[in-house]
Structures are given as structure tokens and as C-alpha cells.
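Input (structure):
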């Protein structure tokens, strides 16, 4: 085996990456992270480029050991460079090690997973050093839905044999992910009729009152037995307490386990009707990420990959379907056998208690090295 980084080196590298705060909403910060990521990929012997995706989003990084004339379907490794933590999080929550836990914003989700996968390419950067050509795609906007990067993800997935995703391993015994719910969003607006709340209350048509009816209808779509959840996440309306409100709006999150459920929820939302007189609804709904459904092909891929985990010294199992989405939803929906949650062990994603387990880092790097070298 080529010399892989040890625990001390891995901690130092991941720490340096966490010090570059890169929330999705700060394209310049994500661009700085992209340069760091591309530079490290080049040090691993990969060809790496940084490409713009638009004015309001950071760039993506593409790195490969693919020869120019190698058009074989290969391994697509997906990762993201953006985090949910705002710039300045490090001021009150510094990177630190407590026992076996390395704390730091964006480490578990998912800078550590990306760093591990790239580190595992030690000695594998040259064309032909791996059973299949490796294509790394690191995107800037996964945490907000991958709207800018989705076309690129699907472009690379179209020529992939398998897809491996560096999202963090599940906290429950480091399991990987073979099934995720699809994610969608409804933006609902209500238009009523304003009037003076004291002098002419009867002439008004309250948008907030109408929205209350709609909120109850939307929340009522939730069906835990079917795995469907609908959550009205934000709501705003009205102008002053002495005015019957003319406008109200809300944003709704929904999760579905399969496309039949997705079609059902989309239909229910598109068929919403105003309850009160003289009120209007403005409905804008989309399924942002299709469900990632476990297939026979992905199950067979997991069986194959388990061998590499055993060689590295641990047992790899899959977790139950999770409600969170990732870019794996896109590749899986295209029919590409996909394994997700292959990144760092730890816990606390999207919180200030986010951490990775230091003792597992070398094992994970060995696992990725065997995987990238031999999976064919």
C-alpha cells in the first residue's frame, strides 16, 4: 500500500480545512475553500480544475486521474465544500480536541469526508492506477439544494458506473446510506382584502385567517405510516395590528419515501383551494430532490464494498432510510448504483457540537484507498 497519512496528519489537514469557513451564502468563502481543495487534489497527483457556476454561488472543483482518451464509465465521488455555519462561528466555537472528538464547524458535514477521500488517492493519481477512472466532483451549494450544481452532477453521473458520496457516516455505528427521502418545497402566498380592523372589520378578508386554514390542511398531509412529512417552516404576514391583513406567505418543507408518495403530495398541494371568500392562493411547489430508493444494484454494490471495509478493519452496514437529502438523490434517480454516508465517523451535523472521531480516521482512509483502487 502507498503511504497514507497518519492520524496526526489527518487531524492537521482537516483542521486547516475547517479554519476556512465556507457557508453556502458566502461565494467568496466557498471559492477560497475550492482553491484549497483543488490544491490538495493536485498534491495527490490528480488533475484538478476550479470552474465557476454563476455569480451568486461559489465554484465547483473537478479532479480526476482519468487519461484524456479514457472514456470508460468510472467512479464518481461526490462531495460538497459549503457548510451551514455562518462566518464567525469559530470565534465562539474554536476547533478543539476533547478526548476522541475533534470539534469544528463543517468538519463532520463534510470537510473531513472529502479530505479522507482525497487523502486515500495517495499513489493512485496516475491514469491506470485504479481499476476504474476516478472523477471527483466537489460542489458549492449542496446545503441549499444544489440548484446551480445539479446539472453538473447529472452530467458526470451519466458517464459513471458507480457513485460514492462523502457525506458523513451515520452516527449509529458508522453506517452508510442506501436510501434517502426525496425533498420538496412549497411557497404559498395568500391575498386577502385589507380594511380598518376597528372601523370596517367586516369589509376585510384576512390573509392570515385564510393561511391558518391552509396550514392545517398542509400539516394534515403528513402520514407517518407512509413516511410522508409536511412541515410549515416559516410564515409571515400583515402590516399593522389595526389593519386586516391583505397578505400572508409561508414556506413548507416536505419529505417523501418514493415517487408515488411524491406525486401524491404534489397533487394535494397543487389542488389547494381558498376556504374563505374573496381570497386567492399563489402556489409554487417543486420536488427539489427525488427519493433515493435502495435498489438491487445498490445492494449489490454495498455487498462488494463491504469487502474493502473488512480489509480496513470494520464492518460496513447500511442505515434505515433517512429523511435528509443529499446529492446522492440525483445520481440514484438516474439509475447509477450509489452509496452515500461513506465519509467521516462522528455526530452533531448542523450543530455547534459537530465533531469527528479521531480514532477512526486512519481506518476510513484505508477503506477509501482499497475502495478507490480496486472497485471495478
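Output (sequence):
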Amino acid at each position: 500500500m502507498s503511504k497514507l497519512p497518519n492520524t496526526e496528519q489527518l487531524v492537521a489537514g482537516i483542521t486547516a480545512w475547517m479554519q476556512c469557513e465556507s457557508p453556502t451564502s458566502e461565494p467568496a468563502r466557498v471559492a477560497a475553500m475550492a482553491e484549497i481543495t483543488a490544491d490538495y487534489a493536485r498534491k495527490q497527483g490528480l488533475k484538478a480544475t476550479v470552474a465557476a457556476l454563476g455569480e451568486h454561488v461559489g465554484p465547483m472543483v473537478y479532479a480526476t486521474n482519468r487519461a484524456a482518451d479514457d472514456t470508460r464509465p468510472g467512479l464518481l465521488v461526490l462531495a460538497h465544500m459549503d457548510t451551514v455555519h455562518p462566518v464567525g462561528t469559530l470565534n465562539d466555537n474554536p476547533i478543539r480536541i476533547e478526548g476522541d472528538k475533534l470539534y469544528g464547524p463543517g468538519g463532520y458535514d463534510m470537510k473531513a469526508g472529502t479530505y479522507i477521500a482525497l487523502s486515500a488517492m495517495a499513489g493512485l493519481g496516475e491514469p491506470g492506477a485504479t481499476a476504474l477512472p476516478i472523477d471527483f466532483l466537489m460542489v458549492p451549494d449542496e446545503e441549499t439544494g444544489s440548484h446551480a450544481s445539479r446539472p453538473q452532477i447529472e452530467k458526470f453521473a451519466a458517464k459513471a458506473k458507480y457513485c460514492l458520496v462523502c457525506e458523513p457516516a451515520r452516527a449509529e455505528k458508522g453506517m452508510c446510506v442506501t436510501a434517502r427521502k426525496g425533498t420538496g418545497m412549497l411557497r404559498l402566498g395568500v391575498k386577502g382584502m385589507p380594511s380598518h380592523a376597528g372601523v370596517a372589520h367586516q369589509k376585510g378578508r384576512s390573509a392570515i385567517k385564510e393561511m391558518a386554514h391552509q396550514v392545517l390542511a398542509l400539516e394534515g398531509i403528513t402520514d407517518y405510516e407512509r413516511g410522508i412529512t409536511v412541515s410549515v417552516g416559516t410564515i409571515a404576514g400583515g402590516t399593522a395590528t389595526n389593519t386586516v391583513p391583505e397578505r400572508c406567505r409561508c414556506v413548507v418543507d416536505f419529505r417523501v419515501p418514493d415517487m408515488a408518495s411524491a406525486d401524491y403530495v404534489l397533487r394535494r398541494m397543487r389542488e389547494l383551494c381558498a376556504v374563505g371568500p374573496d381570497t386567492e392562493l399563489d402556489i409554487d411547489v417543486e420536488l427539489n430532490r427525488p427519493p433515493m430508493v435502495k435498489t438491487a444494484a445498490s445492494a449489490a454494490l454495498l455487498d462488494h464494498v463491504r469487502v474493502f471495509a473488512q480489509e480496513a478493519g470494520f464492518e460496513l452496514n447500511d442505515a434505515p432510510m433517512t429523511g435528509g437529502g443529499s446529492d446522492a438523490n440525483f445520481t440514484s434517480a438516474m439509475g447509477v448504483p450509489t452509496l452515500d454516508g461513506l465519509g467521516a465517523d462522528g455526530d452533531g451535523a448542523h450543530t455547534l457540537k459537530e465533531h469527528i472521531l479521531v480514532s477512526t480516521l486512519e481506518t476510513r482512509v484505508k477503506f477509501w484507498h482499497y475502495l478507490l483502487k480496486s472497485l471495478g
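Notes: The first strand starts at residue 47 and ends at 51. The CA atoms of residues 176 and 318 lie 5 Å apart.
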